[in-house]
Structure formats: C-alpha cells, structure tokens
Amino acid sequence: PADRARVLRRAADAVRESAFELGAMETLDTGRPISETSTYDAPSAADCIEYYASVAASSPGGRSTDVSDGSWAYLRREPLGVGAGIGAWNYPLQGCAWKSAPCLAFGNAMVYKPSELTARTALRLAEIYSSAGLPDGLFNVVLGGGDVGAALVAKEEVAKVSFTGSVSTGRKVYQSAAGKLKKATLELGGKSPLIIFDDADLDEAVSAAMMANWYSSGQVCSNGTRVFVHRRSRDDFMERLIERTMKLKIGDPMDPETQIGPMITEGHMEKVLGYIQKGKDEGAKLAYGGERIFRDGLRGYFLSPAIFVDCSDSMAIVQDEIFGMVMSVLTFESEEDVLCRANGTEFGLAGGIFTNDLKRAHRMAKSLHAGVVWINNYNIAPAEMPWGGWKNSGIGKECGLEGGLDEWTRIKSVYVEMGGV
C-alpha cells in the first residue's frame, strides 16, 4: 500500500503541474472553456488521485473478532483483479481519475476506454502514471466506440466494470456484467431539482441556478435543470437570472474570458434545439435565449442559454434529460408540494436546496430521492464525498471511502480454530 500511495502522490503532483496543458486538451476535445478546464478539471483529478493515495496508505483493512471457545475470525479485504473503466465525453480527465485512482489504490489493474470523442487526456494520464512509477500493465487505455466497450465488459478476465454514460447504455453494460455476476458501478443520467425557498439568499440562489445549468454548456449529468422557486420569490428571481445570464460571454473556448463554449457535436446541438422547440410546442414560455448563435464571427455549435417559465411537471423539457442549457423554472407553494414534485421523476442523481431554515434544509435533504444533495450550493464534488445516484441514475458510488474500499475490494472471512474439531 505504501508503494502504491507514493506512486499516486507523484501522479497527483504531475497532474497539478500540467493543469494548463491538460485543460487545453480538454477544451480542444469537449469545447468547454479553458477558464473551466484549466482551473477545475486538472485540480479535481489531482485531488482525487491524492485522496486515494492517502487512503491507500491508511485505509482500514480487515477486522478480527473473538468467537466461541477462544477461537477467532478475521476478515481480509482483497483486490478484485482487473477492472474495466468506461468514461463519458463531458469530463474525460476527471472521469478517468475517479475510476482509475481507487482501482489502483486498492491493488487492482485497470483497462480504461475513454469516449471516442474525448480521448486525449486519458492517454496523457496513462503517461503520467507511468512516469510516476506505476508498473507497466496496471493502467491501460484502449480506444474505440461502443463495440470496444462491449467487448471489454464481456471479457472473462474483467472482475469489475465502472461505467459513466446514458441510462440506455448503462442498462446494456449492467446486463452484460450480470451475465458473469461481475461487480458494476454505473453513473448514469439525471434530471435534478434545485429548490429555492422564499427565505433564501436570492443572489446566491441565482448563482447556483446558473452554475447548475450553464456551466459546461449544460452538459453535466447532475445539473439542476428543474428549478423550483417559491411563488413569492419567482419574479425577483427571474429578473436577476435573466439580467446575469445576458452578461455571459459566449465565444472561443480557448479565450480565457469566454464563459460558455460550443456544444460537443452538431448532432447533440440539434437534439437540444429539438427539445427547445418541443418545450414551446407543449406550451411553456421561452423567457430567454434558446437560439443558435452566429454573431461575432462564431463558427461552431453555439447556443444561447434557454430559460423556460410556465412549465408543467409532465412536459418533456421537465422530465427528460436534455444535457444542454435548458432550464425549466417552476413555482411552488408548500414544502410538501415541492417535495412530491421534485421526487416525481425516474432519475435520482442529485438535488439542491436553498433556504436559511436549517431544520427545513435537513428535513428536505432527508426526503429527496437522490444520491447527492447540496444545501445552499450546487455541483460541488470533493473527492472525499461519495458520488452516485438512485433509481435510474445509477448503482454504486465513486469517490470517498465508500467509492474505493466498498467498490474495489472483496471480503474474505477466515476462521481460526484454537481448540479441537
């Protein structure tokens, strides 16, 4: 464990030192602004690798217990063997670190397949691991599309699968893994609620709503795209939200001043535009944005953030994961009403609550059907905190002690007879 910890610490340091280089790779692959990728992605990946370096050196192993007649038993936590990691295209470096660091920390090997759209940083991280002293063969990157991922999951030698992606693909991965009774972690989609009560700090709530919808051009699985605002605060909230959204700079993602870059592909942009049209067709009012942008010489898949009001809970823009900058603002009257509606979806990845009533905040956090809940913030994902959804948002955890020890080891029970048979 100490040797593994030293390798991971050296790798974490190298990722931090290469933050701008790695951020530029992410921007070229994803289109996300360099202001995001160089300041968040690499530091987040380094934090995760560093965290599991400390866990590897100090994590609890097995335990012992006395049983009858002086005999005793002990537990061993042992590596699973070879793990398969399959990453998504939106946060390629962070996703690669979240899967590889705990896998390696607990003595496993990994074969990792990044998205075919965003493969650069996985290859670079492999180089960093190697330079940090990781023995050859313990972290391997394979490139390709869905057929390569399917073949990897089906491999007899693979003991555990960690997948991030869509619900439909996640089901296929789970079915394949279940055929050989393999362990699986699935981090899938979301349609998360952000609930803003009338006693909340409204400027803070607007900041969270913008971060939960516009960051990374809305291409974030945990985004709080269903924004429930108390009826008494709704007009003031909308005024502040639109005023601040209008000031965001949309442009060249390599420009450090840019706050919103393009969508990942033309096909994905068309999907988002299709949902914007569907929202209008179903009767929601488009209060701002939702248009393709050609101004200022921009060439690419640029959209302005879309803000819908007068939405109903049954609309497609409220129920479906769009994975783009489409915010649905809904109003509510009571805690009981909003809780029922917030939980009224097939997803259960995340949720946010803004209130200055501490008892209400914890009451709501307890009752939300979600694997991750934030109180008076949103989309904060420290490496120490387990991450993973409920319902159709996934199975298992990444990050935290639970995302390492529970997901990447297996328990062996050993009985020691101190008497006779």
Protein model, in words:
The protein is an alpha/beta fold and 421 residues long. Helix content is 40%, strand content 20%. The protein has 14 helices and 18 strands. The protein has helices spanning 2-17, 19-30, 34-58, 92-105, 120-131, 146-154, 167-179, 202-211, 234-246, 266-281, 316-319, 335-342, 358-367, 402-408, and strands at residues 64-66, 72-79, 82-86, 109-113, 139-141, 158-164, 183-187, 193-196, 226-230, 285-288, 306-309, 326-332, 347-348, 350-354, 372-375, 390-391, 394-395, 409-416. The strands form four sheets. A seven-stranded mixed beta sheet has the order 10-11-12-9-8-14-15, with helices on both faces. A six-stranded mixed beta sheet has the order 5-4-3-6-7-17, with helices on both faces. Strand 14, helix 13 (358-367) and strand 15 (372-375) form a beta-alpha-beta unit. It is globular.
Q: What class would the helix/strand composition place it in?
A: alpha/beta
Mean pLDDT over the full residue set:
96
Main beta-sheet annotation: 7 strands, mixed
Relative strand content: 15-25%
Q: Provide the helix percentage.
A: 40-55%
Radius of gyration: 23 Å
Shape: globular
Poorly predicted tracts of residues: none
- What distance lies between the first and last C-alpha atoms, to the nearest angstrom? 36 Å
Strand arrangement, major sheet: 10-11-12-9-8-14-15
- How many helices? The count is 14
Number of strands: 18
